Amino acid sequence: MAGHMARHMAGRVYLDWNATAPMRPQARAAFEDAAALTGNPSSVHAEGRAARHAIERARGEVAALFGARLADVFFTSGGTEANMLALSPAIETAADKRPRGELLISAIEHASVRAGGRFPRNAIEEVPVDGDGRVMLDALAHAVARATRPLVAIMLANNETGVVQPVAEAAAIVHSAGGLLLVDAVQAVGRIPCDIGALGADLLTISAHKIGGPKGLGAVIRRSDDTHFADPLMRGGGQERGMRAGTENVAGIAAFGAAAAAVRENLAGEAAHMLTLRKLLEEGLRATSPKAVIFGEAVDRLPNTTLFALDGAKAETAVIAFDLEGIALSSGAACSSGKVQPSHVLAAMGVSPGLLRGAVRVSLGWTTTESDIECFLDAWRKLAGALSKGHGIAA
Ligand code: PLP
């Protein structure tokens, strides 16, 4: 349990795993071992080959988690850069090297996809979601039919609601119209299976820090080497087979690989553990607040995520009140430069403004315990009354 203690601040309950997860002990060990390597992975001498070996071993571990080939994994500086690299009109396939005419994105994508990568603003179109937060496949079919060689981005699971998207069905629709599908799997990895072939994604993006690897590392994975990035973001020394130049983050990549291996080994058990605790959490929540709304409750969600709201409550007040009770969680609203913006995800779902402002996200992970959930529920019983009346923090 020493590892557990080291990962959490004493006396605190960490329930914000969708923001980031603690590093797994295996990842830390791999990080330290690889940080001791001297060589540049591009060097031909023994030192260089040792660093190269650490990277390729990690690449194999990441590839295996997604059922991909080793040569189809490209490391980046995170999920954001992975999305930026993939969101380019210059994504070519062996059969079609013409530029992608449009970018279609679901209305609930992460900011790094909503920014549109290298597509011009006027070439980006949003595909709506239904009231449960799932992309509307009939709207997608219409949009791809109108578009010219579209690149379509649909996340596998939403970071706020945890709602799992019908990606395999979307892939069939996209492919039948000559489109390519990018799947942001950042929040899904480590919680549900993410086999790239089964999903039908042409490109998949992931981030290490959500699965117990280091922050500042991610990857783009392609389903086949038919797909080519003709316009890499980083040009220079030709690393990552020309797709991402710059001397590799050897220690970080080694740690990412170790985290991926741990996920592959433990996914079924960890997912079942998180689901059991989330059921406990949601039952307790409902017992105290029968009027609480749990978003996406009727549809398939990640086993670790609950986004809920009480009408009239203010999420930012709730987050501070929980923090004072020793509990780290997050509001459903995206907070940028100190301003709390209403969540575009809940807005796209048609959630009323009163509920939308009060959304609180609780996200669990592999070291979350039953006693963490009890602490959360104790705090909620104490805070719910005052918060639902829109009052400030209970003294
Ligand atoms: N995509 C989704 C769905 C995310 O939730 C996040 C991070 O929260 C990202 C992309 C960005 O990943 P990173 O933090 O590694 O840049």
The mean pLDDT is 94
Q: Number of helical segments?
A: 13
- In angstroms, what separates the terminal alpha carbons? 34 Å
Counting DSSP E segments of at least 2 residues, the number of strands comes to 17
Silhouette = globular
Order of helices and strands: HEHHEHEEHEHEHEHEEEHEEHEEEEHHEH
Give the fraction of residues assigned to helices: 25-40%
Strand percentage = 5-15%
State Rg.
21 Å
Ligand inventory reads:
pyridoxal-5'-phosphate
**Structural class by secondary-structure content:** alpha/beta
Biggest β-sheet strands, sense, barrel = 7 strands, mixed
Strands in their spatial order, largest beta sheet: 2-9-8-7-6-4-5
Which ranges are low-confidence, i.e. pLDDT below 50, for 5 or more consecutive residues?
Answer: 1-6
